[in-house]
Design brief:
A: 125 residues; 2 domains; B: 174 residues; alpha/beta; 6 helices; 7 strands
């Protein structure tokens, strides 16, 4: 009887602590992706400023209400603009930022391919 | 004259970089939340500073032609400098109601602050932990938000209200 009670208590403790660690990790990820607007180069996770403390409270509230990470970012972006998130969403103002590296990569690959082919062609002749 | 493809590519790349550079120079890099102008305010519930039984919500503001929502605190020095303009606004404009939101302050200090400098507010609410300020995109105080009866933001003042801002507010509401 005592052993059963001990097992149940240990199980409940294990489940609740795992759940709480998981939600803490999720919250920390959100904080890390949010910029502290009143600090120099710090994220909300790094800062202890008044603004960061308030944002942490609001994120916790939204998280407890069952909002997803994306919904939280969307809410804060609607209030503070794209600047508050470190990873901005794809839009017409930043499409170059997102597409240029891939374009350069593909274009560069194509140039390398042409050069190799040219060198091979010259060697063969 | 034979022009090699690589020269065209390098030339295009330089022209493209100069174009981006020139365009970036024109962009204003000073951060503010004035992009909220034209948007509707969020739903909120604001409790009165000296009574937790009384509160106002966004719905109550629809009755006013204009509402100026002002975030202030007794510990904030620029709030003192703008207060005289708020008092003047409250006297001169019957069309506009002023709502004060006391930000992360002690109740007694806030009440003393209003006793000392005058109370220009039609309602003084309390935002103890700052959660309401986030709904209005506030990141430092003082900040003031002018809305119309549709609850649309028509002006956002970041920092203290000065003579220029005061004149602009009067121009909008008259």
């Amino acid at each position: 009887m005592k052993l059963n009670f001990f097992i149940i208590i240990t199980y409940i403790f294990f489940v609740t602590s795992t759940y709480s660690n998981e939600s803490q990790t999720k919250l920390l990820n959100v904080y890390k992706n949010l910029r502290c607007l009143v600090c120099q180069g710090q994220s909300i996770a790094d800062s202890n400023s008044d603004f960061a403390t308030t944002i942490k409270l609001v994120v916790q509230d939204q998280f407890n209400k069952g909002k997803t990470e994306d919904e939280i970012y969307k809410f804060l972006t609607s209030k503070y603009g794209e600047w508050i998130v470190y990873q901005p969403t794809f839009n017409k103002n930043n499409f170059l930022l997102w597409t240029l590296p891939y374009t350069v990569l593909i274009f560069g690959g194509f140039i390398i391919f042409l050069l190799i082919r040219k060198v091979k062609y010259n060697k063969d002749n | 004259m034979k022009i090699s493809i690589s020269k065209i590519i390098i030339f295009s790349f330089v022209i493209f970089s100069l174009f981006i550079f020139q365009k970036s120079l024109k962009i204003n890099n000073n951060y503010d939340t004035k992009s909220l102008i034209g948007n509707k305010i969020s739903k909120f519930q604001l409790f009165k500073i000296d009574s937790h039984d009384q509160y106002i919500s966004d719905e109550d503001l629809k009755e006013n032609k204009f509402t100026l929502i002002n975030f202030f605190a007794s510990w904030c020095a620029p709030c003192r400098s703008e207060h005289k303009f708020l008092v003047k606004l409250s006297r001169e404009s019957k069309e506009m109601k002023i709502i004060g939101i006391n930000f992360k302050d002690k109740q007694n200090n806030a009440i003393s602050f209003l006793k000392e400098l005058g109370n220009p507010y039609n309602f003084v609410g309390i935002d103890l932990v700052g959660k309401i300020s986030i709904l209005f995109g506030v990141y430092g105080i003082p900040e003031s938000i002018l809305i119309n009866s549709d609850l649309t933001v028509i002006k956002k003042i970041i920092g203290p209200i000065d003579q220029i801002q005061y004149d602009e507010i009067l121009k909008i509401i008259q």
